[in-house]
Design brief:
The protein is about 70% helix and about 0% strand. The protein is mainly α and about 230 residues long. It is elongated. The relative contact order is 0.12.
Amino acid sequence: MESVPSALMGPSGSPSVLEIAFTEATEGADQDDEVTVRLLDAAYEQFCRMGIKRSTMADVARLAGVSRITVYRRFATKEKLVEQVVRREFRRYFDRFIVDIQDAETVADRVVLGFVSSLRVIRHNRLIGGLMAAEPDAVVPSMTGDGGRTLAVVRQFLASRLRREQRAGNVSDEVDVNLVAEMMVRVCASFLVIPSQVIDLDDDEQMHAVARQFLVPMLGPPHTPHA
């Protein structure tokens, strides 16, 4: 395993790592045993320090304080290890998104907070964000050259949240949540892969204003509770 793209995409016809992470975040995932957690932690740290290409299974074993045999017993190949590490990071992203929006009072506030949170979590993630900054050629193709699968998974996640808002009466039934989610995800993706010369992505106040001006109106007129 030499790059992030194949870890994200998965073999042809099989679920991608991102798709599996989405399922685990929404349905819950089995807890890893202590040794597996230690290996994933060590691999994450190793990949952050040296990158994926320059890291070996022996490096991970050394950092975890175990033998290479122990690593291979849990992960048959380096590819499998990378997949598990990347999956865990994206599962944390989905989990973080849900936590960040849960206390917002309105659907508009949840959209704004979700937008800002998503960009912050991905860009500041030591592994994914670090690779995007240092080795964009290793990550960007996974978002743009996989037939839209990566964006589709995030769109599916966001659409599921918007459907909840519809069922709660916070968004009109006439709103096409799949289309709205598609547009919102594409806006986020563009900020991630193409640096902006106009908007400071580290300025939360500015990012909140952008989301409120351009994303919130996609939800249609504000919901007015019946008297």
